[in-house]
Design brief:
CATH topology of the largest domain: Rossmann fold
Structural class: alpha/beta
Number of strands: 7
CATH superfamily of the largest domain: Vaccinia Virus protein VP39
Strand order of the largest sheet: 3-2-1-4-5-7-6
Helix content: 40-55%
CATH architecture of the largest domain: 3-Layer(aba) Sandwich
CATH class of the largest domain: Alpha Beta
Number of domains: 2
Distance between the termini: 43 Å
Radius of gyration: 19 Å
Number of helices: 7
Bound molecules: S-adenosylmethionine
Shape: elongated
Largest sheet: 7 strands, mixed
Length: 221
């Protein structure tokens, strides 16, 4: 049995069975291997833009005797996507890079599911999902080695109202409360020491705190 991080386990739990998956930026391919072992009817392509990670991925596939089951591909993002692929997984990259990968393609027409796990810039990722005609149906935060990651699933459609800052995160999840309380505390600390001349920055921090307080307050109701 393969061991993967808490973050990758959450990503895997968002991937539907009976799907044809591309794991973009697979690196070591541990997620692809885990998916193959834990889902019943899937086909998996593991891709990376760099040859070096793919060498390690190849070794890992051989270690788990999956070299004939998981296809390894060297390529940039979602270029030349096989027609049968219906599920895109992109994990462990910055939000801006994920957004770039999603928008740099005209080839999403066969895609039904998008599962993402950005390391940062969560609002940018949510905005991109909306722009490419998908809607977020599930979101969770995971704290792994003291860092918080977002994991989300999107399908075709439109979120009626989508707050890019909070998405559709569950306000009662401990990780969500922890994440936004940390931002609030950090901002409050900055506000105490920042010179008054930084008017715009002060205003933005205050606005962000107001938004978070409102959000956290409705949590406890
Ligand atoms: C930090 S690793 C993440 C590995 C794995 N997905 C995870 O979540 O643990 C990011 C990987 O994405 C790859 N990458 C970066 N830009 C890419 C792109 N445009 N297309 C495909 N892979 C890319 C890098 O080479 C690297 O191996």
């Amino acid at each position: 049995m393969i061991n993967i991080s808490k973050r990758l386990q959450l990503v895997a739990s968002f991937v539907p069975d009976n799907s044809n998956i591309i794991d973009v930026g697979c690196d070591h391919a541990l997620l692809s291997i885990y998916l193959y072992n834990n889902l019943k009817h899937v086909s998996i392509t593991a891709s990376d833009i760099n040859p070096n990670p793919l060498k390690i991925a190849k070794e890992n596939l051989e270690k788990y005797h999956l070299e004939k089951k998981i296809k390894l591909v060297l390529k940039d993002g979602l270029t030349d996507l096989d027609k049968n692929i219906d599920t895109v997984v992109i994990a462990g990259m910055g939000g801006i890079l994920i957004s770039k990968i999603l928008t740099n393609t005209e080839n999403l027409k066969n895609i039904k599911n998008i599962i993402l796990s950005p390391n940062n810039d969560f609002p940018i990722v949510r905005e991109t999902i909306k722009k490419i005609g998908f809607k977020i149906v599930k979101e969770k935060l995971v704290i792994d080695k003291e860092k918080t990651y977002l994991v989300l699933k999107a399908i075709r459609g439109k979120n009626k109202k989508l707050d890019y800052y909070f998405g559709i995160l569950n306000k009662t999840d401990l990780e969500v409360i922890y994440y936004y309380t940390n931002i609030l505390n950090k901002n409050t600390k900055i506000l105490k020491s920042i010179p008054k001349k930084y008017v715009k920055r002060i205003l933005l921090l205050k606005l962000e705190n107001k938004k978070i307080k409102r959000f956290l307050l409705t949590t406890s109701k």
